[in-house]
Amino acid sequence: MDFVTVDPTTELWDEVYRELLRPSFPDNELSPADVLAQRLQHETAAATAAVDPDSGKPVAVALGEWSERSRVQLLSYLAVSRGQRGTGIGGRLLTAVREDWRERFRPCAVLAEVEHPSDHDGSRAHGDPDARVRFYERQGAKALELPHFQPALSEATPRTYGMLLLCLDLDSALRGPEPGTMDPSALHEFLAEYLRENEGEVGDDKPTKALFKALDRESGIPLRPLSEIESIPRSAKP
């Protein structure tokens, strides 16, 4: 399998979005193609595809978005074609992009968003939330103790509540004061920027207030094993 950097001006990007991202994520969890392409062009995002050398077709993609201000890289999307799920290609691709991002962006933290299995049902198209959590557990991820939600990614789509915010990599620069925690100020900056970029502002609604109140911990934001996600508070639609 070849790992290829995705140029948003090429047919590969069109294929990746049409054949991998669009079938793998519900509309409210997927940014519009033109928005992602613009971020790729401006190098505030990076995408790598696993391409079958025989067919030339992409079978998996990882797309991350970079916040220079907070030094955080968000793994926005990891998608594997239905026929390649369970083959290990997702794990190999994730390992490759984490190494690439360390060289290109030098992030102090790599985060990812996933659906909480208790709040989201699985489907043949979009996959199994329980299996996704197990996958990230194998990758060494921990869950931040926050009532996280994904912002509304367009004017036509709502927020996605009941999400987990995972930490895949954490540099000493963003570790919290207490062992096993992340610096709350860095998370505050990242999440505020994330909301402004997608929703235009940091709202004063109940879920947003709860999220930022949970950041108000001088000792740091606890990083929990994924076996303990039921103890993490969850966001809900007001």
TrEMBL record:
Keyword Transferase: yes
MF annotations from Gene Ontology: acyltransferase activity, transferring groups other than amino-acyl groups
Superkingdom to which the source organism belongs: Bacteria
Domain annotation N-acetyltransferase: ranges: 4-160
Keyword terms: Transferase
One Pfam family hit: Acetyltransf_1
InterPro entries referenced in this protein's UniProt entry, alphabetically: Acyl_CoA_acyltransferase, GNAT_dom
Protein name as catalogued: Acetyltransferase (GNAT) family protein
Native source species: Stackebrandtia albiflava
